[in-house]
């Protein structure tokens, strides 16, 4: 193997664009440089050949999500994250990706970005691969320079976010001024996401979460903060679909990719309503928190409800409960079932709650309860005899259903 007497990438290039052009000149191939979240930082100019994936990256200033997903599925990005050696990538026609070579720009074990070299008219030789590693070392110093002051900026951003979340910055003009100081584009409408893991959010997990948010391209994260086992995001939906559908789509893909790419599961997610002013961020945060509370209290039947707008009647249970408390209200029919179950070791209370929760579907209810259909019918008949519940009355059934949920939400047995 040839040993290089001089490093063509030593010295100061003034900008990443100049460095990209230098790499392109040395290797005679088109070059792009990205950050760790696949946002375009620089690309070489004056080359004749390219491919659709590179064109889309330059136009959108970031690698398209479908390309990133394909690179994950083919194991390219995991290999780049584990090694500083260049990785050859074959053509992936369905996403418009031609043959290329990539290398990670690293500081120890931390990936700062990537260099991509498109093999249009030539294939990189072993010597070219070594040159590409030297180029990555040169790019590292430039990316580290770009990071100077980043930690302090992030601390300032988190401080601003917490003030907004807690209502300690109520004036819209003041918030907009702070966003401008931090070079954050004030995009509205926006919503607060809460992503809750089983374990505490470490700096590594925080980076993984922000990486997925950036790559997903359904939302634009304005501010973020980690709080114990929760990751909080203030984000604006991006795309032609309705904003709330984009928010839901992000949550669904987040669950999938955290499990597939980072082996993290058992995640809960919630987001509040869209707000048209930053002074209402606290409201969206409280709404997202209430969604999580419902998920945790009611479990499986509500885990698919992530947006505050999806809660339906659950949005107002706390108000109904407060009124009931003031009036010392008790549902006598439910109390009768609780007393009877305690005395006879039966499960009539749980049976009726399950039956109503499943929209009175006999087949589903018997499956969930693990009992025969005839047993379920007998129990429902016994419930009617004990309580005089009219199963044909929607008013009675709705009230009983709400009381069941409030008993669980607010941990009230109300005997």
Structure description:
- Residues 348-405 form the PucR C-terminal helix-turn-helix domain.
- Residues 167-294 form the CdaR GGDEF-like domain.
- The protein is of the alpha+beta class and 415 residues long.
- The chain is built from 16 helices and nine strands.
- The protein has helices at 16-27, 52-60, 65-73, 76-82, 126-147, 150-165, 172-181, 203-216, 243-262, 281-298, 317-326, 332-344, 348-357, 362-369, 373-387, 394-409, and strands at residues 31-35, 40-43, 87-89, 100-107, 110-118, 191-196, 219-227, 230-237, 268-271.
- Strands 2-1-5-4-3 form a five-stranded antiparallel beta sheet, sandwiched between helices.
- Strand 1 (31-35) and strand 2 (40-43) form a beta hairpin.
- Helix 8 packs across helix 9 and helix 14 (362-369) crosses helix 15 (373-387).
- The model has no long low-confidence stretch (mean pLDDT 91).
Integer average pLDDT = 91
CATH architecture of the largest domain: 2-Layer Sandwich
Helicity level: 40-55%
Q: Which radius of gyration do the C-alpha atoms yield?
A: 28 Å
What is the strand arrangement across the widest sheet?
Answer: 2-1-5-4-3
Domain PucR C-terminal helix-turn-helix: 348-405
Family: Belongs to the CdaR family.
Domain CdaR GGDEF-like: 167-294
Protein name: PucR family transcriptional regulator
Give me the secondary-structure topology.
Layout: H1 16-27, E1 31-35, E2 40-43, H2 52-60, H3 65-73, H4 76-82, E3 87-89, E4 100-107, E5 110-118, H5 126-147, H6 150-165, H7 172-181, E6 191-196, H8 203-216, E7 219-227, E8 230-237, H9 243-262, E9 268-271, H10 281-298, H11 317-326, H12 332-344, H13 348-357, H14 362-369, H15 373-387, H16 394-409
Antiparallel strand pairs: 1-2, 1-5, 3-4, 4-5, 6-8, 6-9, 7-8
């Amino acid at each position: 193997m040839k040993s290089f007497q001089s490093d063509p990438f030593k010295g100061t290039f003034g900008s990443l664009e100049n460095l990209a052009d230098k790499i392109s000149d040395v290797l005679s191939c088109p070059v792009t440089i990205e950050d760790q979240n696949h946002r375009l930082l620089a690309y070489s100019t004056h080359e004749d050949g390219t491919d659709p994936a590179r064109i889309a990256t330059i136009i959108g200033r970031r690698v398209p999500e479908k390309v990133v997903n394909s690179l994950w599925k083919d194991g390219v990005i995991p290999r780049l994250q584990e090694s500083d050696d260049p990785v050859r990538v074959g053509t992936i026609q369905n996403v418009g990706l031609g043959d290329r070579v990539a290398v990670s720009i690293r500081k120890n074990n931390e990936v700062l970005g990537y260099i991509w070299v498109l093999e249009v008219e030539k294939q990189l030789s072993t010597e070219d691969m070594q040159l590409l590693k030297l180029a990555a070392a040169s790019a590292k110093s430039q990316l580290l320079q770009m990071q100077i002051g980043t930690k302090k900026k992030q601390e300032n951003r988190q401080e601003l976010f917490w003030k907004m979340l807690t209502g300690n910055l109520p004036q819209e003009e003041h918030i907009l001024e702070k966003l401008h100081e931090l070079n954050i584009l004030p995009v509205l409408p926006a919503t607060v996401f809460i992503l809750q893991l089983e374990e505490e959010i470490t700096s590594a997990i925080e980076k993984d979460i922000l990486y997925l948010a950036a790559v997903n391209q359904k939302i634009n994260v304005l501010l973020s903060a980690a709080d114990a086992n929760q990751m909080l995001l203030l984000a604006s939906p991006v795309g032609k679909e309705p904003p709330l559908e984009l928010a839901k789509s992000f949550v669904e893909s987040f669950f999938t990719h955290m499990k597939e790419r980072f082996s993290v599961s058992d995640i809960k997610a919630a987001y509040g309503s869209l707000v048209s002013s930053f002074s209402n961020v606290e409201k969206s945060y409280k709404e997202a928190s209430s969604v999580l509370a419902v998920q945790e209290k009611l479990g499986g039947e509500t885990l698919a409800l992530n947006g505050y707008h999806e809660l339906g009647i659950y949005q107002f249970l706390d108000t109904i409960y407060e009124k009931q408390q003031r009036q010392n209200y008790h549902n006598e029919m439910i109390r009768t079932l609780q007393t009877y179950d305690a005395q006879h070791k039966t499960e009539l209370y749980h049976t009726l709650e399950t039956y109503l929760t499943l929209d009175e579907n006999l087949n589903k209810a018997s499956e969930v309860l693990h009992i025969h259909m005839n047993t379920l019918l007998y129990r429902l008949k016994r419930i009617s005899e004990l309580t005089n519940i009219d199963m044909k009355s929607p008013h009675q059934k709705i009230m009983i259903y709400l009381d069941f949920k409030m008993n669980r939400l607010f941990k009230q047995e109300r005997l």
